[in-house]
Structure to design on (178 residues):
């Protein structure tokens, strides 16, 4: 796809219209043009899952996805799964279960968990592990991630989708933002 392409798409609910080279990866568009730095590049070959975002609700490796092919698409990054000042139940569950260690792969795992729970609100341990086969964690936190998804299921069953970020930070003695 040589040359420049005009692309109109939504990222986290906000509409963008950009002119991009045909070879530009969605990962680069999100990070360097639009500032969504929660999208991480691990391997650059679609093998580690650190760059996973949702495109029209489906998990995609943004390092393998060309932005020029996303006209009229809806993209969701880790920054877009909860409103400003809130954390999604999945994010809180990952924090509470120790699923966040170095944090590099965490956005990809959370996005994969979101895609899974959007399809199946009560997955088995086996199904969770199957969904995570395309993600690599260098810290080896896989069991924590399974526990995090199960904890998120508990919250979602109770109708708790979002948490106040400030309250979570205070409760867990995390540094304030800013």
């Amino acid at each position: 796809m040589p040359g420049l392409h005009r692309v109109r798409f939504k990222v986290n609910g906000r509409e963008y219209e950009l002119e991009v080279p045909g070879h530009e990866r969605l990962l680069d568009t999100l990070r360097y043009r639009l500032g969504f730095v929660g999208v991480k590049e691990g391997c650059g070959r679609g093998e580690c899952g650190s760059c996973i975002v949702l495109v029209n609700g489906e998990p995609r490796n943004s390092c393998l996805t060309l932005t020029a092919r996303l006209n009229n698409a809806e993209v969701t990054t880790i920054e877009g799964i909860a409103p400003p000042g809130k954390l999604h139940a999945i994010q809180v569950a990952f924090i509470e279960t120790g699923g966040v260690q170095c944090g590099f792969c965490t956005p990809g795992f959370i996005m994969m968990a979101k895609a899974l729970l959007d399809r199946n609100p009560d997955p088995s341990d086996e199904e969770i592990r199957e969904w995570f086969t395309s993600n690599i964690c260098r810290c080896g936190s896989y069991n924590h991630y399974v526990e995090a998804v199960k904890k998120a299921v508990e919250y979602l069953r109770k109708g708790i989708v979002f948490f106040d970020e400030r309250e979570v930070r205070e409760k867990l003695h995390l540094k304030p933002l800013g």
Notes: The longest strand covers residues 4-11. Residues 94 and 156 are 14 Å apart (CA to CA). The chain has a mean pLDDT of 94. The chain has two domains: 4-80, 86-171.
